[in-house]
Predict the structure.
Amino acid sequence: MFSAMVHKSHHKTVSNKFDRQQSQDENESDSDSDDEDDHFSTTRGESEFWRRKMRTIHRILDVNKDGIIAFDDMRIFAHRFVELGHLSENHQKEFHSVLKTMWEEHFGSVDKYNLVSIHQYLEIMHHSLNDTKLRKKVHHFLPYLFKAVDKDGDGIISLEEFKLFFKCLGLSSEAAIVSFSVIDENTDNKLSLREFVIWEEIFLTENQQLPSKMLWGPLAD
Ligand SMILES: [Ca+2]
Ligand SMILES: [Ca+2]
């Protein structure tokens, strides 16, 4: 499946748990079997489950809650993470540049008149999901979120740090506890960077069993 391609470098070290999830995913989806080309037999992003995930992300990225994502929302969003003070200057620069590139590639120009409604967001993300190149980039900003909330810099997200992450998303500590307990399947109270980045699944998969669906809090209707 696609995640396997993106994470080739990691692939030797991914947990058995993830391998198991992958094989489940492959069994459930015949469109995920081809790694190196874009000749999918089916269109991705057709399920109501996937649309709910995208509505959930739109709701979070719409920081000022006016129903529309503007690049300003992205700036405020990024600022919340930067403000925590755990990103190096270089990582801050990269983070801003990755968000700007993502915006330009998916939504167009960075100006205040470029507004993305939920309807447009669904259309654009559907297009990106079915475009091999764009699909690879849609989640590039996730590692920066991880680094920003990893307060003690140990490469692991504890429950306390995960609460910080949810706070930056505009979600409650209670919601963080619920999501953390779902995502931390082996209940060791830790999430590794690898586990965190694998949550690009939220953009990519239509498998409802994967805990990644909890990354952005409760799913929107
Ligand atoms: Ca907004
Ligand atoms: Ca940590």
In short: DSSP finds twelve helices and four strands in the chain. Residues 89-107 form the longest helix (19 residues). Residues 44-213 form a domain with the Recoverin; domain 1 fold (CATH 1.10.238.10).
